[in-house]
Write a structure and sequence with these properties.
Layout (H helix, E strand, L loop, with lengths): L1 H20 L7 H21 L2 H7 L15 H8 L6 H5 L5 E4 L14 E15 L5 E8 L4 E7 L13 E11 L1 E5 L2 E5 L1 H7 L3 E4 L8 H15 L9 H6 L5 H9 L4 H31 L11 H9 L6 H15 L5 E6 L5 H14 L3 E5 L3 H15 L6 E4 L5 H12 L5 E4 L13 E6 L7 H8 L7 E5 L6 H4 L7 E5 L9 E6 L4 H13 L3 E5 L14 H12 L5 E4 L6 H9 L5 E4 L12 E7 L6 H8 L9 E6 L5 H12 L3 H12 L2 H7 L15 H17 L9 H9 L4
Helix pairs in contact: 1-2, 9-10, 10-25, 11-13, 12-13
The chain binds adenosine-5'-diphosphate and magnesium ion.
Length: 736
């Protein structure tokens, strides 16, 4: 009876899975007939053997506790929980870390030296030896009847008991010769008897494990889980998409990712599962964007007269890119939907002017603008620049930050509240509850990466309606991030620098060349230029051996540059703007500073920047800092003083000496730090990427994005029958 019901069960599963996989062929009558037959068959079966197995299939198995998998009892489910596996779905989506191609096991007599090889044989002998240097070496001799090879492990004597004499093992690793033929530190597995048949001649998955479970046990559970559950998994991807991009169905993809029979299987499975990850991510982004666009926003109608006047007063013409981006922003602001737009452009590409262009549109249509920046220095500087440019137009510009006197702050807040203030520039102080804008129409966030999503939204909510939001990014954003982390925003790109920019020469030097660096600064300052020297910290750190700005300012003043005027600037000082202003007015020759000068600061006469402990900084940050020089008519020099601890760290810094292309640097930075950083911290409520890599799998990312956005624009509620499973899945994952 058991056999019969097992067979019936199999039949039913086949028909169910063929039902779920065939949404396209439904059109043909013949297929319809088959479906009816199958359904009738199921109905009859149901009469005969009762409801039990059908109850099985109605459930959403992916959500059930992993204990439903054969071979997983209460004890083992605790072990699996340590791997983050709680449900059947978690289990099926816990993918192999790598695979071992055991179909390529070769006789030991034929192994090739210097290559990675897989061999299998019986343990002949084993032993741990100590060398005169005190290193423990475990050696295990393996015999396969054609020859003997040794496996060696250093300082892991505890591995010895894993290899009882006579047991059968598989080894994989690079073969070399040291007295005998050996493999150092091979990947290995001790085989059981039954396994020999099952796993010797095929590709086997190697899973990420935890204590109390081994590869063999894991594989056995996967075998039964895949057979049992993969046919029950509902396909959620519309057939047309699968067909267009040659994607295998989901049950098959899950089977093949765990048990590929050839490399092509693995490729098929990965392609499908990576597509899924991107597709769900893009759907979530598209939903977010749609959700925002459904809101009522402000229609900024302006003839652009203020902007025209402003352009005439500027001492330089705007670049083509600046004009285009201002136009894009103005068009967006004129729509009755809230704008959420990111302006990206190289350091020094002139984003501030673009922000002013947007502000003038808001002012002309009767609204106020708030411009938020991350540091008081930058706020002060923007205030002076913008005030100078806009006063002739009769506009009221205000500055708000916490270091101002209470009286000044209160006056400013009053002007904001009674609507007198047109444009308010400020730091986080703008976010305070007491600051109230009666007619806030535009929020501009400069150096947006320094702010969190919450802060941007807090400021935005100070408007009565859905205020337009313009974010400005410090440096260009790699395409992969533009499509993911920033994938729900509209993006404008300033892809042109103002003419006449001088190249910045960048050098990487070591501690020994320090006196040459000081000589070079002396030469430049004597020629009338100014210099920045940037340190990572304010105070010296005993543990990290880093030099600190405050102490070094003292030292350099006394011992190195007694003939020059030295200034000190750091974030915790009260009189930051005064120092910055003196530097701007050339009352200071050399400014010793922390990274507070990283963003926005604009002193065209400065031509040298020395960054100490450069290895401590990120590439994008260094590039941004270096953007403080090369702003005037002089050739400029950026000198990175560092002791990169490794070859890798040196290569990383060398990128900066080779290119001044912010795009390339950002790509490089992304590759080094990985997208995890961007996803982990910034995007909650976004699906996880397990297999996909936004840089390597860019092609699939683009396709998935196109398909997701197109589905949502045709069927925003995902209400069409063909999208039902998709909608259910998104709900389960709390993505909608
Ligand atoms: P960023 O994009 O890094 O924020 P800024 O807005 O600070 O750049 O501009 C850098 C410098 O370039 C400023 O001194 C600004 O006055 C100048 N600038 C901006 N646009 C132009 C232009 N079209 N022609 C010449 N100089 C410009
Ligand atoms: Mg800027």
């Amino acid at each position: 009876m058991g056999k019969v019901s097992g067979y019936l069960c199999f039949l039913v599963r086949c028909s169910i899975s063929s039902l779920s996989c065939q949404d396209d062929t439904m059109k043909t009558d013949r297929f319809k007939g088959e479906v009816l037959m199958t359904l009738r068959g199921i109905f009859l079966l149901r009469e005969k053997i009762g409801d039990s197995i059908f109850a099985d299939m109605k459930r959403n198995w992916l959500e059930e506790p992993v204990q439903y998998v054969k071979g997983v009892g209460p004890k083992r489910s605790l072990v699996l929980a340590k791997l983050g596996i709680r449900t059947v779905g978690d289990f099926l989506y816990h993918f192999p870390r790598r695979y071992e191609d055991r179909s390529r096991i070769i006789p030991i007599k034929d192994v090739r030296i210097g290559e990675v090889q897989v061999v299998s044989g019986k343990v002949l002998a084993r032993g741990v030896k100590k060398t005169w240097k005190g290193i423990n070496i475990l050696r295990v001799a393996i015999d396969d009847g054609t020859g003997i090879i040794y496996a060696a492990w250093f300082n892991q004597p505890y591995l010895e008991k894993q290899f009882p004499v006579g047991s059968k093992v598989i080894l994989s690793g690079k073969v070399d010769i040291y007295k005998d033929i050996q493999i150092v530190n091979p990947a290995y597995e001790v085989l059981g008897d039954e396994q020999e048949v099952l796993e010797a001649g095929c590709i086997v998955p190697i899973y990420p494990l935890t204590k109390d479970i081994n590869q063999r046990q894991m594989r056995k559970i996967y075998r039964s889980a895949i057979d049992r559950f993969s046919p029950c998994i509902a396909e959620f991807l519309p057939y047309s998409i699968r067909k267009r991009h040659k994607l295998v169905n989901l049950p098959l993809a899950l089977r093949k990712i765990h048990f590929p029979e050839a490399e092509s299987d693995w490729n098929d499975a990965r392609k499908r599962l990576i597509f899924d990850e991107f597709f769900l991510l893009q759907l979530a982004l598209a939903r977010r964007k749609h959700g925002r666009l459904e809101k009522q926003g402000i229609r900024h109608v302006s003839g652009g007269r203020l902007f025209e006047k402003f352009k005439e007063m500027l001492p330089f013409p705007l670049t083509g890119a600046q004009l285009r981006v201002v136009e894009e922003i103005r068009n967006d602001m004129a729509k009755p939907r809230p704008m959420t737009r990111l302006v990206q452009g190289e350091v020094g590409s002139g984003k501030t002017i673009v922000a002013i262009g947007a502000s003038l549109t808001a002012v002309e249509s009767g609204y106020q603008t708030a411009l938020m920046v991350p540091t008081e220095i930058l706020a002060g500087q923007h205030f002076l620049t913008i005030q100078k440019l806009l006063l002739p137009l009769g506009l009221r510009i205000n500055l708000l930050m916490s270091s101002l006197s209470q009286k000044m702050r209160e006056e400013t807040m009053k002007e904001i509240e009674n609507g007198e203030s047109h444009i308010t520039i400020g730091t986080h102080a703008l976010l305070e509850e007491k600051v109230r804008f009666p007619r806030l129409g535009l929020v501009v966030v400069d150096e947006q990466h320094k702010f969190g999503v919450k802060q941007r939204e807090t400021l935005r909510k100070k408007g009565l309606e859905s205020t337009d939001l313009l974010m400005m990014s410090a440096t260009p954003i790699p395409r992969s991030l533009a499509m993911t982390v920033y994938g729900d925003l509209d993006i404008s790109t300033i892809d042109e620098l103002p003419p006449g920019r001088k190249e910045i020469h960048t050098y990487l030097v070591s501690e020994e060349e320090r006196s040459a660096v000081y000589d070079f600064i002396r030469e430049e300052v004597t020629l009338g230029r100014q210099a920045y020297i940037v340190y990572p910290l304010i105070e010296e750190s005993a543990t990290l051996h880093l030099k600190a700005a405050a102490k070094m300012a003292e030292y350099l003043k006394m011992n190195v540059f007694p003939e020059f005027r030295i200034g000190l600037l750091h974030g915790q000082m009260k009189e930051k703007e005064e120092v910055m202003q003196s530097f701007k007015e050339r009352e200071i020759d050399i400014l010793i500073s922390t990274t507070v000068i990283e963003v926005g600061v604009d002193v065209p006469n400065a031509s040298v920047m020395v960054v100490e402990n450069a290895e401590r900084f990120g590439l994008a940050q260094l590039h941004q800092m270096r953007g403080r020089i090369g702003r005037g008519d002089y050739e400029s020099f950026c000198i990175l003083v560092g002791e990169p601890g490794s070859e890798e760290a040196r290569k990383r810094l060398e990128v900066l000496t080779q290119t001044s292309d912010g795009f390339q640097i950002a790509e490089e930075d992304l590759e080094l730090r990985g997208p995890g950083e961007f996803f982990g911290t910034r995007q909650h409520g976004m699906p996880e990427l397990k297999l996909a890599n936004i840089a390597d799998d860019m092609k699939l990312l683009e396709i998935a994005r196109e398909e997701a956005f197109s589905i949502l624009s045709q069927d925003p509620g995902l209400d069409e029958p063909g999208h039902r499973n998709l909608k259910m899945l998104l709900k389960e994952k709390s993505l909608i």
